[in-house]
Sequence to fold (490 residues):
Amino acid sequence: MEIAFDNEKYLKIQKEKIEERIKMFDNKLYLEFGGKIFDDYNASRVLPGFSPDAKIKLLQEFKEDLEIIFCINANNIKKNKIRADYGIGYDVELLRLIDNISKLNIKINSVVITMYTEQEEVEELKRTLENKNIKVYLHKPTKGYPDDVETIASEEGYGKNPYIETTKKLVVVTAPGPNSGKLGTCLSQLYHEYKRNIKAGYAKFETFPVWDLSLMNPINMSYEAATADLGDINMIDSFHLEKYNIKAVNYNRDISAFPILKNMLNKITGKNIYNSPTDMGVNMISKCIVNEEVAQNAARMEIIRRYYDSLCDFKKGIGNENTVETIKKIMNRAEISTSDRKIVKYALEKSEKTNSNIVAIMLENGKVITGKESELLSASSALLINAMKELAGIPDDVYLLSPSVLESIFKLKQKTSYKRNYSLNLPEVLIALSICEKTNPIIEKTFECIDKLRGLEAHSSYIVSTTELKVLKSIGINLTCEPKLLGYEG
Fold:
């Protein structure tokens, strides 16, 4: 994989930038932290070389001076809002984040449940958190929000929220997903801090869009594709242009909300802190791109992947046609099409030739490996076995799995499964391989090659089941699927 991004440089200069921002205020900064703290595979795909765990590594640099406040919208708990990338609810993702961060000995201050209107579903999460000795604060809808600044920044507005006592100079406010109330929580805290004569500050941690790359840069267009379901549109920050005569890229929601946000900050702090939404961000991404061409090509491929994802979501009834059309327009602006994703052609040609479900993957050396669905194995299972054998230099005619083990699992599945398809899925095959590894040393050699699949491009002639998709994502394979349902989940 060609590297486009210097991750170590990023950690260094992003840390320095945050430290500068802390010093701008009374040595206390509320940092609104968007995106994923762990496993930011979107950024690692768009910027090859970006570590998926770069953000948590950055936060670990501040460990002694850092505490985290999590926000979760009560309405997302009530609606059981699902994170599409993990297939779990926001409440479960919140608990996962808390457990993972606690293991790193980073201080978790509390959880704020925003938009609280006595939803019954909130109580169970509140009890679970309190049983983990996590403080929980309830923020009801703010009176006057978002237009009546006088009321919002008063005892009738933010003043009704409980004050969250913090002791560190960097307070990261984050969430398990978008629209969780991070900004409102930051501003509420500023209101209470200034009442206590603590001149705290606010800033926003940014990854995308990259403010000092152009609107038409594929890296920024890939952000629009990633947030097409939210309706985010990249725009020139008119406030930044007017103040500094410098073109800066931001997105529509931040730009439209800035006048109100600026007034709120002025009302709370008594001074003009920021002249543009771009000023609020802490984003040094562009300074760490070491190969612009590679990064732009990677971003173009990410746009195409997002297009396939939107097609499949629409087919499954969990997406909408508007998202599909939005990404299609982005592809037109970027002058790309699905034919630019080379692996697609190989998967579809093999599927048509064999009249079977196929998953294909392109190795680093350009060789294409395929997996065909059979009565015994799913296409994804066959692909993984074939790819690992190829990378380990094991001949095709050498069997990795013991026929007796396979037969036992297959028969058990026939007896216990209500589904019409009994072929072994990826988790089942991995379990079988693990069992056979004890008696077959060749399997150990193939497992050593599994990391070589990370970052490779794959395409399926059908929508891979959620069960198998999770495994492929955990391995790091960039899979796209044709919007074709099989009628069962493997």
Summary: The two ends are 31 Å apart (CA to CA). Residues 143 and 157 are 5 Å apart (CA to CA). The chain has a mean pLDDT of 91.
